[in-house]
């Protein structure tokens, strides 16, 4: 479980365990090579001592110390990674305060010190349960009788002590524990007494391990002795054992156990939280690596290759490597390289089919929104049960029925694998048809990715099916058979599913794309090429009709392709993240169970904003927040923008105001009502508005207010005149109104 949720922490923990093993191996080699030397000295009147010291080979002590230092560093890195990976995992759910401050695992000697570390935002962005556990296990906490917690506290205390001692240049040494020393003397001498010395650190200077007294001793009598002492590797700085069972190796084992328990607990607590989180892979390429100008590519495309691309019919080149697919895409801005990696790795603790279902769901919930991802449910049918697909995507009045087919056994001959894939496509197609028949018969109640139960009006939804093939080495060039049933079914590799969500980062956009294509690409695994062929057609298409109300309002038409060539966020990732955070604010607003379905419709309306508009919106929100935050005291500053993606589409309004008061709430509602009224008296039209207002309490950066209107707003004449004077007058709050028209394919 640790590796699945916290891959970086898991690797650091593994490194620490390997360092511990390396220390033990080196120590054993040194001891066998004569590291410990002993001496026996008997004085003239019979007293004697058994002593020992360490004869370090050159560099051996430094090597051991560096191994130990590395082990300690890896343990700290594991703890810190638990925090940083938690922040990253839940960054799509929570706004991180003070992102410029480092995140780390806090350990302190006292409560005041611990709270001061938390005040530095060191764990901001993790779960409250994470913070509570870390506080409860601090080494300064008094024992409450829980042996497991007490062991964790002791482990953290040792780790803190070792870190400080290493910073003070302490080095590794040895610990001598005399157990059963022995002395034998030749006659007439007799052993009158023998006493083992107290355990202690063993260094390069001799240490007495035992003292003895011989009677009738004469000079020249042979004396033989055995130290009978355990000599263990030890970080002797500050080491005072509690008893004979308390060893350095035991303490190091305890520390690794404590860190492991933290990792397991963090992973378990994270797994209990529904909703979006970072998908498994910790090393996937970002947008800056997957979309670059061809002239800057490490592949060094030749001028002839780029010229051939520009002159080709579709402006698309393809290179299939063992670990990724690379497309060379011709755009109006020049040729670009689009890298499409393999699908993210599957979780190891589940069987392949279950892990594939989790990966498919996580990709949709992370790059899209978890609110639109419905978990499969089981219904009773007669004396048996049936599962409603492997999950659904439902956004607005469109849905996708998902079926996942995973190859559970090792692949065989190409012919065998081709047969398996074709068989699965046929079986999945039948399952999709059965599921859609059930969904069209009556509504269904399902649980979404936030763990909320929702009533789905499935008969009113337009459905398509998707079959996702999970295969470690799918057959190349496999032609997908045509599908002739009533519900379209599209066959995808899991890589292509992740490509669509990573490219568009919008559930509404991905669902819209699947409904648009309505059938499989000719070849399994050919979805990225088909996407870019459609994107090229969009770029050359004639813009669609303008909403009639827009001209009357003085809006400025602006055309963008429905399918962008560049991955979402590659032009301004900060702006796209801003939009995603805003959507998360809306999605996680506190609402009652009776409001969930209506709130889903509002969220779907906001997610319908085409991908090509989001950079503009995100940058507008960021700049507007920066502007209104600097408003002079006693003034109210507004920034507003509205979007309409064509006639019949929902109108989306976004406002940023310097203050959130009853007055500004009312003004925001009035503005949205006026803009909705100006579209005309259409019962089926909806306008959704989002208001952001900055906060200064440090809890979060802004508040989010949402308002939605459907049908006629029924404004009185007085209200209409008042709102027009307020928002349409020359001195009205600054507003930018644009008809954002996607280009038609």
3D structure, described in words:
Mean pLDDT is 88; it is low at 280-285 and 738-745. The protein is elongated, with a radius of gyration of 35 Å. With 745 residues, it is α+β, with helices and mostly antiparallel strands. Strand 19 and strand 20 form a beta hairpin. The chain is built from 20 helices and 28 strands. Helices cover 40% and strands 23% of the residues. The longest helix has 30 residues, at 60-89. The strands form eight sheets. A six-stranded mixed beta sheet has the order 23-28-24-25-26-27, sandwiched between helices. A five-stranded mixed beta sheet has the order 14-17-18-21-22. The two termini are 45 Å apart.
Radius of gyration: 35 Å
Q: Regions with pLDDT < 50 over 5+ consecutive residues?
A: 280-285, 738-745
Separation, N- and C-terminal Cα atoms: 45 Å
Basic shape: elongated
Taking the sheet with the most strands, its summary is: 6 strands, mixed
Q: Roughly what percent helix?
A: 25-40%
Strand content: 15-25%
- The beta-strand count equals 28
Query: What's the overall average pLDDT, rounded?
Result: 88
Question: In what order do the strands lie side by side in the largest sheet?
Answer: 23-28-24-25-26-27
Q: Which key phrases capture this entry?
A:
745 residues; alpha+beta; six-stranded mixed β-sheet; five-stranded mixed β-sheet; 20 helices; 28 strands; 40% helix; 23% strand; disordered C terminus
């Amino acid at each position: 479980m640790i590796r699945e949720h916290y891959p970086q922490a898991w690797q650091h923990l593994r490194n620490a365990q390997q360092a511990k093993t390396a220390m033990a191996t080196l120590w054993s080699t040194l001891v066998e090579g004569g590291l410990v030397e002993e001496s026996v000295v008997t004085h003239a009147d019979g007293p004697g001592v058994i002593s020992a010291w360490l004869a370090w080979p050159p560099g051996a002590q430094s090597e051991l110390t560096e191994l130990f230092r590395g082990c300690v560093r890896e343990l700290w890195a594991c703890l810190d990674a638990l925090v940083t990976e938690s922040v990253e995992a839940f960054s799509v759910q929570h706004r991180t305060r003070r992102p410029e401050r480092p995140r780390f695992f806090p350990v302190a000697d006292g409560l005041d010190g611990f709270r001061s570390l938390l005040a530095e935002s060191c764990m901001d962005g993790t779960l409250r349960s994470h913070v509570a556990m870390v506080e409860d296990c601090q080494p300064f906490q008094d024992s409450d009788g829980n042996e497991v917690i007490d062991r964790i506290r002791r482990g953290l205390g040792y780790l803190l002590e070792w870190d400080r001692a290493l910073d003070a240049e302490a080095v590794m040494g040895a610990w001598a524990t005399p157990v059963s020393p022995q002395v034998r003397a030749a006659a007439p001498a007799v052993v009158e007494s023998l006493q083992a010395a107290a355990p202690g650190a063993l260094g390069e200077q001799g240490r007495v391990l035992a003292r003895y007294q011989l009677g009738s001793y004469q000079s020249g009598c042979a004396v033989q002795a055995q130290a009978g002492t355990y000599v263990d590797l030890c970080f002797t700085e500050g080491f005072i054992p509690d008893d004979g069972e308390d060893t350095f190796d035991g303490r190091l084992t305890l520390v690794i156990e404590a860190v492991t328990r933290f990792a397991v607990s963090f992973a378990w607590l994270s797994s209990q939280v529904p909703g979006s989180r970072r998908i498994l892979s910790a090393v996937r390429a970002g947008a800056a690596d997957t979309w670059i100008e061809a002239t800057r590519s490490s592949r060094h495309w030749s001028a002839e290759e780029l010229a051939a691309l520009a002159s080709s019919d579709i402006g698309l080149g393809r290179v299939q490597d063992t670990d990724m697919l690379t497309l060379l895409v011709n755009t109006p801005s020049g040729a670009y390289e689009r890298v499409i990696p393999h699908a993210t790795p599957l979780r190891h603790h589940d069987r392949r089919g279950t892990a594939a279902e989790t990966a498919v769901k996580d990709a949709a919930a992370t790059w899209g929104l978890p609110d639109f991802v419905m978990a499969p449910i089981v219904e009773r049918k007669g004396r048996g049960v049936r599962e409603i697909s492997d999950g659904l995507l439902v956004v607005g009045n469109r849905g996708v029925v998902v079926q996942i087919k995973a190859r559970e056994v090792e692949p065989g001959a190409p012919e065998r694998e081709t047969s398996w894939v074709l068989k699965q496509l046929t079986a999945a197609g039948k399952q999709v048809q059965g599921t859609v028949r059930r969904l069209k018969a009556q509504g269904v109640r399902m649980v979404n990715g936030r763990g909320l139960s929702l009533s789905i009006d499935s008969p009113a939804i337009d459905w398509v099916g998707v079959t996702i093939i999970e295969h470690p080495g799918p057959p190349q060039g496999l032609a997908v058979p045509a599908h002739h049933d009533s519900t379209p079914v599209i066959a995808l590799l899991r890589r292509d599913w992740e490509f669509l969500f990573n490219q568009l980062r919008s559930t509404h956009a991905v669902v819209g794309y699947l409904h648009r294509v309505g059938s499989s690409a000719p070849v399994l695994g050919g979805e990225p090429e088909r996407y870019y062929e459609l994107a090229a057609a969009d770029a050359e298409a004639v813009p669609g009709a303008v909403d009639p109300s827009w001209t009357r309002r003085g809006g400025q038409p602006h055309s963008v392709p429905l399918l962008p060539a560049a991955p979402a966020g590659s032009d301004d990732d900060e702006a796209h993240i801003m939009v995603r955070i805003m959507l998360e604010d809306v999605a996680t607003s506190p609402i009652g169970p009776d409001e969930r379905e209506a709130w889903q419709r509002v969220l779907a309306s906001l997610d319908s904003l085409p991908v090509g508009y989001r950079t503009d919106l995100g940058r507008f929100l960021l700049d507007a927040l920066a502007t209104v935050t600097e408003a002079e005291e006693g003034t109210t500053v507004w920034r507003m923008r509205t979007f309409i993606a064509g006639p019949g589409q929902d109108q989306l309004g976004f406002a940023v105001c310097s203050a959130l008061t009853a007055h500004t709430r009312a003004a925001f509602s009035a503005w949205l009502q006026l803009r909705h009224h100006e579209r005309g008296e259409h019962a089926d039209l909806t306008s959704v508005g989002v208001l952001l207002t900055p906060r200064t309490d440090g809890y979060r950066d802004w508040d989010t207010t949402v308002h939605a209107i459907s049908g006629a707003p029924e404004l009185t004449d007085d209200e209409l005149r008042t709102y027009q004077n307020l928002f349409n007058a020359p001195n009205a709050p600054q507003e930018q109104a644009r008809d954002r028209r996607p280009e038609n394919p």
